[in-house]
Amino acid sequence: MTDFRANLRPGTRAVHVPQPVVDNSRPIAMPIYQTSGFTFDDPAVMAEAMGRPDGAFVYGRYSNPTVRSLEQAVADLEGAVAGVATGSGMGAINIVLLGLLKPGDHLVAQNSLYGGTAAMLGELTARFGITVTYVPGDDPAALRAAVRPETRLVYLETISNPMTLVADLPGMCAQARELGLVSVVDNTFATPLLCRPIEHGADIVVHSATKYLGGHTDVVGGIAVFADTALYEKVWHFAIELGASADPFAAWLTLRGMQTLELRMERHCSNAAFLAARLAEHPAVAAVHWPGLPSHPSYEPAGKLLSGFGGVLSFDLAGGRAAGEAFMRSVRLALLAPSLGGVETLVLHPATTSHRSLTPEELRRSGIGEGTVRLAVGVEHPEDLWADLAQALRQPLQ
User: Fold this and answer.
1) What is the mean pLDDT of residues 202-226?
2) How many CB atoms lie under 10 A from the CB of residue 365?
3) Which helix (H) or strand (E) holds 250?
4) pLDDT tens digits for range 89-120
5) Last residue of a domain, one of 222, 243, 258
6) Number of domains in the chain
7) CA-to-CA distance for 385 and 387, rounded, in angstroms?
8) Please, which residues have CB within 8 angstroms of residue 280's CB and are 6 or more apart in sequence?
9) Where on the chain is N6-(pyridoxal phosphate)lysine found, per UniProt (predicted)?
10) Are 224 and 275 within one domain?
């Protein structure tokens, strides 16, 4: 990064992504390099390129100019040295876990995680004997107590999915570093606009680029970025063998989406604040989970760690599962669909969708109830959104 770019704020850097030089000029918009490979005149140069993550472009599974631009752009926003883009968010998580852990290793994870991550941790235990201990994401003492001689890694989410608990990144990452552990943080809900975990001691940050980075519900992708070159190179070598590479067109869509990230996050957060306050006053709602509410257990640490409280909230309906199902059948503007982070507002029932692989005990540990609804707030007018939610909350149970 040049000194000039270092002085730019994140929203500006997201607009001005790294561009290749072409005949002494640069394109305004990043082109799509839709090619599976590149030709060489010198076989020695080609051979060297295949062994270096920062070398010449040789084959699409290794890298691509459009993909590398995305990797550099996200690494720049997160304050990382480099990144590896993947075909999905779970691809990013898996290149890190599988690239750094071996059979018999142990890791510590926070006890409120995205369901896909929790399911993968279960697979690691079943297939490879990689064991997991779950602790609160804001309890460094619990992390220290959970560590064993074979512990290698700590896994956290800046804002947890779906209960929006905020991790104590400074405390947990400092503890991990003191103990010689690699700290990995899923920053999908916060984005680099609300939090940059590497600034708080994280070693690796992962994103589902499908969500806020892409931002328009039209791309599936992921990325892992690294504070340390050695970790980056280790994971990059594993990733190209695993074949989890990002597609150039998907990378291009993500880059295009990132240019409006700051504008969208401002609206996501303000809309979420408006709806969380209204929901908290509604008699059909037993509890609202959003870290911008004073009643939320993460309210104070979130105010210190985050520059905004995020666009996702969850709420528990007093009528339990029947009320949740009636609500989701009744929304009209909000859409019943998976994922989040797009311009549209989406709702889902975590216990039967995003976290369906969890046992009843694991759901309780995560705080997810039968009547819990996750609301990924879009950028529509807040009064229109509230009118839709209010009419859905009035519908009788069936």
Assistant:
1) 98
2) 15
3) helix 248-258
4) 999 999 999 999 999 999 999 998 998 999 99
5) 258
6) 2
7) 5
8) 288, 293, 295
9) 211
10) no
| Mean predicted confidence (pLDDT) in 8-27 | 85
Alpha-carbon distances, residue 162 vs 3, 139, 267, 351 (angstroms): 38, 19, 20, 10
User: What's the CA angle centered on 98, arms 92 and 99, to 5 degrees?
Assistant: 85
Question: What is the CATH number for 383?
Answer: 3.90.1150.10
**Rg (alpha carbons) of the chain, rounded to whole number:** 21
Question: Measuring CA to CA, which residue among 13, 19, 16, 14 is closest to residue 31?
Answer: 19
Q: Which of 78-82, 135-139, 361-365, 379-383 has the least mean pLDDT?
A: 361-365
**pLDDT tens sequence across 225-249:** 999 999 999 999 999 999 999 999 9
Q: What is the rounded CA–CA span in Å between residue 355 and residue 352?
A: 6
Domain range for residue 349?
261-394
Q: What are phi and psi of 72, to 5 degrees?
A: -70, -35
Active-site annotation, residues: 61, 114, 186, 211
- Determine the residue type at 4: F
Same domain for 56 and 131?
yes
Extract the runs of DSSP E, i.e. beta strands, from the chain.
82-86, 106-110, 131-135, 151-157, 182-186, 204-208, 222-226, 285-289, 312-317, 335-336, 346-348, 372-376
Q: Which residue has the tokens 């007018």?
A: 381
| Boundary (domain end) residue, out of 237, 258, 279 | 258
